[in-house]
Design brief:
heterodimer, A: alpha/beta, Rossmann fold, 2 domains, B: 362 residues, mainly alpha, two-stranded antiparallel ribbon, two-stranded antiparallel sheet, 17 helices, 4 strands
Chain lengths: 513, 362
């Protein structure tokens, strides 16, 4: 921390192209950025790192003109103050962006994509000089170190080439560009293709542009970065030359020490009966994952975005087709939702509005949808008052507001919506409860309720599996956490080793020293 | 607390104000509920209907306000209404069946053809026709569920195939059926001063209403229509539901053709497609009524409100008979869908702002 203060705003070497002083951004209820200083020199790749919620994305959105900083923040380009009131102003000032989802039109060719939203070289009558455009596009891709047919549709190209096109498009007008911001460019990139991207970024650096590089993969920062700035909880921890640091120290800086909670001594002492058995589970990212969970156990799945963590639970429930075998209490479970439900599985999906609930229906209709037979008379008529009574009981139990079974589901707050989604599965008394990001976009109170419920369900003899990007959540609620990287389970943590710091280390693939 | 919620939930600001003026007596709770039942938002089409009757009753009292007008509108409306109910069923599951007009045409063509070329008893012929129509629904369902073709495109294609089939049967000529008198009596006679076909419509509407609003199948249909992914993940057999919806839809459309054969034993290939649009307009306008989602009674109210408006125009200005129907139907469809998408857009905006707040916090 001392090193951090010493480093503050003392530009060494070339004068900075981008200087940020005292940048704050307040959202209702949270301070996303708190007096952050940051600068980028021409011809350097400056890595910006921090965990989820550290403020990286807010900083980038401020530079993009998407968010307005709090008054008193000072952003200068080459010494001149800039007003980033909207995205156009940001572009005019010289900021260029390559976002994680590159924003390419897949059905169009590389040339078409490069020409989108730009004045074209036209001949008489507005005819586009495609020949000239193609040659130009080719030349530019070569300049970045790429060599492929620019007339091919983007959908046929590899991930590295696509990233290249996005960079070429962002830097179409080299002369006006000052700072290139690359946001998690390698999240979806196979390892071997990363090298091509680095080569391109290196060429950009040599042109004298400042590059801000955001990534979760720490090893990359050591390969390509010149300097690194670490953010934590909206504050700048410090800025270092990359050579000064090693990966282990970087993780400590990211995670911090204040966050250390008492290592929990909860060692699972339940039954030894294996209730959930997963053999060689395969999906798009998930690659041969084996998991065994015992009755009464809460198992967590941790991993960065792209590690396969997001895919495991949908695969288990049969939302998407899968390879491998899933057994509940020894019986093979078919890979489709109804079969999974029949086997006693339940899934609370990560995307509540898209998959968790039917937003147009009422709370009651959403809650009882998982099992309507319970309220059907022999004539097929649904007994609405019985339905209402059951839903009201759940509303009382989970403290849902408002206490009206017939309220529109869409009018509830995120936390209350999630409670109803949970209720619709708990009413089936599942033997295997799968919770995917169960507390995303949920208030603190609801979060505590949901965690307590997960423990309770396990205590009643079910298996609970929680996949989450919130490491603290996993540490608080799970008996055992599996860490995923590149589609595989690479570590298993339990007992007193189960701390957010340890989980962060394992996800960021830094060896424990 | 309860009355507060009631007031918040009341759709009309004017009504909320009215409720606020009311003394907070014991009836404060019950008053908003029956007021809500009659609110303009829930029953705008019914009020429109009354408005048309008063308006044209004042303009042309001696021709408009007669038994003949009412009888005419109801009798001729039955076919369109049955067709509208056919369109309604898949729409509750979020799918469009644009082939209902063509299926009706096929049913009518087959009824007439069978009466000419076979000696089948008319009821047996009608049953056979319904089976053929149901199998058209099986085909549509197959294309949509198994081949994963968008329902709009699939049924548009199927309707062209069916029109081709009917042209083949009729040889592109007008067919005059040899249907028995008792059959056309069903189509043209009254029972208790009300056309018999209206009873058919009411019976069908009652059955559909029961199924849609009070059974598991109805709940599954609306859940599938609201969010097919979420419904599937909650254990709703969405594919089966959609497939069945198309079979039911085609069968009901076939029924419309059978009823048509009662009213007129004539077939020409121009009959059928023209009925699609009024039916669609009625369903969409009806979806803005009552429960604010596609529903049976809203559809019927919407259809008759429009039909009376058109009839009134025809009677008050003879030149209007040509253009009034398409203009009315077109305007009402656009207004209905625009009204229906307004709350949806508002919800979307809210959802976006919530999402923005949560994403920025992270």
């Amino acid at each position: 921390m001392h090193a951090a203060r010493d480093m503050t705003a003392e530009p060494v070497g070339a004068p900075a192209v981008l200087t940020i002083r005292g940048l704050s951004k307040t959202f209702p209820g949270t301070k996303a950025l708190d007096r952050v200083d940051f600068d980028v020199r021409p011809g350097e790749i400056h890595a910006l790192i921090g965990q989820n919620g550290s403020g990286k994305s807010t900083l980038i959105k401020v530079l993009a003109g998407y968010h307005q900083p709090d008054p008193g923040s000072d952003i200068r380009l080459a010494g001149e103050e800039v007003d980033l009131r909207d995205t156009t102003a940001s572009r005019d000032a010289g900021f260029r962006f390559v976002h994680q989802d590159l924003g390419l039109v897949e059905t169009l060719s590389a040339v078409d994509n490069l020409t989108l939203g730009r004045e074209l070289d036209t001949a008489f009558g507005g005819r586009i000089r495609w020949g000239a455009e193609c040659r130009d596009a080719e030349r530019r891709m070569r300049a970045l170190g790429y060599d492929f047919d620019v007339r091919r549709p983007v959908a046929e190209l590899g991930a590295a080439e696509r990233t290249g096109i996005a960079i070429a498009r962002a830097l179409w007008d080299w002369e006006q560009a000052r700072v290139l911001i690359v946001d998690e460019p390698t999240a979806s990139l196979p390892r071997e293709e990363v090298k091509v991207l680095f080569d391109a970024l290196d060429r950009v650096r040599k042109q004298g542009l400042g590059v801000i590089y955001v990534s979760h993969r720490l090893d990359e920062i050591f390969k390509i970065g010149d300097r690194v700035t670490v953010l934590r909880d909206g504050k700048r921890v410090g800025t270092w030359d990359v050579d000064e640091l090693d990966p282990d120290r970087l993780v400590s800086l990211m995670v911090g020490s204040v966050e250390l909670r008492p290592p929990h001594d909860r060692v699972f002492r339940g039954s030894h009966e294996v209730a959930l058995e997963i053999r060689q589970l395969r999906g798009l990212e998930v690659d041969n994952v084996d998991i065994e969970a015992r009755r009464g156990e809460v198992v967590g799945i941790a991993g960065l975005t792209g590690s396969g963590r997001e895919e495991v639970l949908p695969l288990l429930f049969g939302t998407v087709s899968r390879g491998g075998e899933v057994r509940v209490d020894g019986r093979v479970v078919p890979a489709e939702p109804r079969g999974a439900m029949a086997a006693g599985m339940a899934l609370v999906p990560a995307d509540r509005r898209a998959e968790g609930a039917v937003v147009g229906l009422s709370v009651r209709e959403n809650c009882t949808l998982t099992d309507l037979e319970r309220h059907s008379a022999r004539t097929g008529r649904l007994n609405r008052s019985a339905e209402r009574a059951e839903v009201l009981a759940w509303i009382e139990e989970l403290d849902v507001r408002p206490r009206r079974p017939d309220a529109d589901f869409g009018t509830l707050s995120g936390g209350n919506q999630q409670k109803i989604v949970l209720a619709k599965w708990l009413r089936r008394r599942p033997r295997v409860l799968l919770l995917d990001e169960p507390t995303q976009g949920v208030d603190v109170h609801a979060k505590a309720t949901i965690h307590a419920l997960a423990r309770e369900v396990a205590a009643d003899g079910a298996v609970v599996v929680i996949a989450s990007s919130d490491d603290a959540e996993l540490c608080d609620t799970c008996d055992r956490v599996l860490v995923m990287r590149s589609g595989e389970v690479v570590a298993e943590v339990q007992g007193d080793r189960l701390t957010p710091e340890e989980l962060a280390r394992l996800q960021l693939e830094v060896a424990r020293t | 607390m309860l009355s507060q919620i009631d007031r918040v939930a009341s759709p009309e600001p004017a009504m909320a104000a009215e409720a606020a003026v009311q003394p907070r007596a014991a009836d404060a709770r019950s008053r908003p509920s029956w007021l809500r039942l009659l609110s303009v938002k829930r029953l705008s089409a019914a009020y429109l209907w009354i408005f048309f009757i008063i308006l044209f009753g004042l303009i042309t009292p001696d021709t408009f306000l007669t038994e003949t007008t009412f009888r005419l509108v109801f009798r001729s409306g039955v076919i369109t209404c049955v067709l509208a109910l056919a369109f309604l069923v898949p729409l509750t599951a979020g799918a469009y069946d644009l082939s209902v007009g063509a299926v009706m045409s096929l049913a009518l063509g087959l009824m007439v053809y069978l009466s000419i070329h076979t000696g089948l008893p008319t009821l047996v012929a009608a049953a056979l026709v319904l089976v053929v129509c149901a199998s058209c629904g099986v085909v549509s369902g197959f294309i949509i569920v198994r081949l994963r073709v968008n329902s709009f495109i699939a049924t548009l294609g199927v309707s062209q195939l069916l029109l081709g089939a009917v042209l083949l049967i009729s040889n592109n000529t007008q067919l005059v059926g040899a249907l028995p008198q008792s059959w056309s009596d069903l189509g043209n006679n009254d029972f208790l001063k009300i056309p018999i076909v209206v009873y058919f419509l009411v019976a069908l509407a009652l059955v559909l209403w029961y199924v849609l609003e009070f059974t598991r199948i109805g709940r599954y249909l609306f859940a599938t229509g609201g969010n097919p992914d979420a419904a599937r993940l909650a254990g709703v057999p969405t594919n089966r539901i959609i497939w069945c919806a198309f079979i039911v839809s085609a069968t009901i459309a076939g029924l419309a053709g059978v009823i048509f054969s009662m009213q007129s034993g004539l077939y020409s290939s121009s009959i059928g497609p023209g009925y699609l649009f009024p039916a669609v307009a009625a369903v969409f306008l009806g979806a803005s009524q009552l429960s604010q989602r596609p529903n049976v009674w809203g559809t019927l109210i919407a259809y008759f409100a429009l039909a009376f408006g058109i009839q009134g125009l025809v009677l008050s200005a003879s030149s209007a008979s040509v253009w009034s129907q398409p203009v009315f139907q077109g305007v009402s469809l656009i207004i209905a869908v625009a009204l229906a998408s307004r709350p949806a857009r508002r919800k979307l905006r809210e959802a976006k702002s919530v999402a923005a707040a949560t994403s920025t916090a992270s």
